[in-house]
Amino acid sequence: MIFAAEASWKGRLAPLGFEEDLVDLAPPPEDGAEQDAGQFWTDFVIETAPEFRKPTIEQLATFIEPVWSSLMDGAMFCEPQLRAILDRAQPDVIVEDNVNAFPALLTHGAPWVRIMSCNPLEMKDPDLPPTFSGYPLEDPTGWEAFRAEYERTHRATWERYDAFMTDNGAPPLPDLEFIHESDHLNLSVYP
Prior knowledge:
5 strands, 12% strand, alpha/beta, globular, three-stranded parallel beta sheet, 191 residues
């Protein structure tokens, strides 16, 4: 089993018995310093904590969309690396636990399985509150306004990423989604 993971995870998966094949989501730091995944997330939480004092509908423009945009940039940067990993590994199945699609994973030819572990609302349903809203299930007040604001703040980012996906041979993304549903298995493992 091979884990294709972001480079800051170097040395963290091998002790658990997994083969690591790492990708960079951006050019390496100019100072050549090693990336520390733990420090990245510590810094991320500290830097973004003020965003979570805002109503979730306001976070769409100031937090959620910039995060999506950053994820898209990383996926675009690492696409050739992922293709090389898949060419070396020739997997029987590809399992992805991430929130955004990667064309290489969908076009390599092996069955692709999607794991959803980040958010209980990753798999959309019109009878459930919008993802990222934090709105209650019992009261749909505000759901449509949230969805409209999501479209307003995310449409251009989604169009850019959808074009990247199709330009690299992957199927079009579902409308305003940044990842496909698997034809083989969609596994929700949210705690």
